[in-house]
């Protein structure tokens, strides 16, 4: 049997390890790259070399940046006394796209999980407690996913911060904007009803 | 708003152009790469640089290889007088995985399509006719997808090869191995019934 040349096969195997890609879509992606060498493969390989050389984790918050402090932690205008805690960098970017939060972030890098043996020390939680003290935070906003693990983590963090007297809040739960009741799960409807507000 | 650093953003944009990835999955893929720099980002960037430098189209059949002639066209044992015509390289790899075809291939690079203005000259069809002559092919096997465009292309190629006196065949259509009738579409059942064979 003739297999793809070994360089190409190695590339396919690596691509297949990315989230959202399997062996078949990795093959398709690599063939598309080779077909569009000038527009896709060359620029991609250059972009990757660049990112591999420059990308690094912010020592303060865990965001991805190109220097020791990320752009947000380095910006004095974002020192508002509010720290928004997110699970990972993709969530931070989602928050930033909404353009509503003006403070700084703290990226946990996951959630507490007994099954996967992820404890507080794996999650930069001690660092968050430190920051809440040294940055004299007024409020810590827990923007964690509304999953079991996310909520467990939120409760644990709330407990850790209790002694500091900092205000701990979390994102509201309810009907998403544009959401239709008929398509929502029971849990969301229950949460929205319990948190109902007067008009 | 703080956006991802521009190098990372450029990488995300390029990744989002790959088939099967959108902006969201490209962001996830890039974050995973950065997280696993040693196991993923570094090897990926090296593999891409290598492939960008070495991968090229076989001048004879259109397969992807690392030299002017691909491994199959360069192998004299595969000069069997049979040419298997496929739409693209992924189909060639699929045929090779089945290990049943021992001859050579011809990669069209697509199908005829009036809508997308793809004519015979875009598809290496003239080159196929040349090859059928110069390689004194006994048989051209059309392994094109069972789509409208694939079948139109098959008919066109059969017409072009008619004058050469070469035998032109196509893959059988019918019930896939392991297939259950209840899950098959009407077209497949009709084709399988029409092509029924005595036991």
UniProtKB/TrEMBL annotation, chains A, B:
SUPFAM superfamilies listed in its UniProt record: Recombination protein RecR
Nucleotide-binding recorded as keyword: no
Keyword line: DNA damage, DNA recombination, DNA repair, Metal-binding, Zinc, Zinc-finger
Key word Zinc-finger present: yes
Zn finger spans (C4-type): 58-73
Alphabetized Pfam families for the sequence: RecR_C (PF21175), RecR_HhH (PF21176), RecR_ZnF (PF02132), Toprim_4 (PF13662)
Superkingdom: Bacteria
Span of domain Toprim: 81-176
Protein family: Belongs to the RecR family.
Function description: May play a role in DNA repair. It seems to be involved in an RecBC-independent recombinational process of DNA repair. It may act with RecF and RecO.
Name of the protein this chain belongs to: Recombination protein RecR
Gene source species: Tropicimonas omnivorans
Name of the gene encoding the protein in the UniProt record: recR
